[in-house]
Write a structure and sequence with these properties.
CATH architecture of the largest domain: 2-Layer Sandwich
Largest sheet: 6 strands, antiparallel
Distance between the termini: 48 Å
CATH class of the largest domain: Alpha Beta
Strand order of the largest sheet: 2-3-1-4-5-6
Structural class: alpha+beta
Number of helices: 4
Order of helices and strands: EHEEHEEEHEEEH
Helix content: 25-40%
């Protein structure tokens, strides 16, 4: 599938589980990547029953699978892959055109999806004079660095719901 639609959600996922299951998943994604290059169409594993979305621009590197989906993360497809091979996963995803930035973990049938809200994206801005992004009084070269910091802050808040931030 060609990237002729503006808003593609980029992902990288690392599966967790037995070495045998991880090898099978790697083989699955390598096969889908090869088929995608041949057909120029996004791919879906053959055991996926629904017709909701596919993986595009699939690449594998350093035990991670990189791919894109149209507009939003398709966590459901990954949970079906994980269930099939009895694994878990950690997924990082972003589509900044729609203010989507988050991390999902899947372990023992439970999904935890933590993402930034529109309000989070409004907490920083670009300073034209400094030619840098400003967040909480500090300058950053990249908005990605700020988004990572904010996501870590959100994860900390969720892990410590009763603590107050000073």
């Amino acid at each position: 599938m060609e990237n002729n639609i503006e808003n593609w959600c980029s992902h990288f996922v690392q599966f967790t589980g037995s070495p045998e299951s991880l090898k099978e998943i790697e083989w699955l994604f390598r096969a889908m990547s090869a088929l995608e290059k041949e057909t120029q169409q996004g791919q879906r594993p053959p055991f996926i029953k629904n017709n909701d979305g596919c993986f595009s621009n699939i690449d594998l590197f350093d035990k991670k699978v990189y791919f894109e989906t149209i507009a939003t993360p398709n966590i459901d497809l990954l949970t079906q892959v994980a269930d099939r091979f009895q694994t878990g996963f950690i997924l990082d995803y972003h589509e900044l055109g729609h203010s989507i930035f988050g991390e999902a973990t899947y372990d023992q049938g439970k999904i935890h999806d933590i993402r930034l809200d529109i309000e989070d994206f409004e907490k920083f801005n670009y300073d034209l004079e400094e030619q840098a992004y400003m967040f909480e009084g500090f300058y950053y070269d990249s908005d990605a660095e700020i988004l990572e910091i904010m996501l870590e802050m959100k994860k900390d808040q969720l892990n410590k719901p009763y603590s107050r931030r000073r």
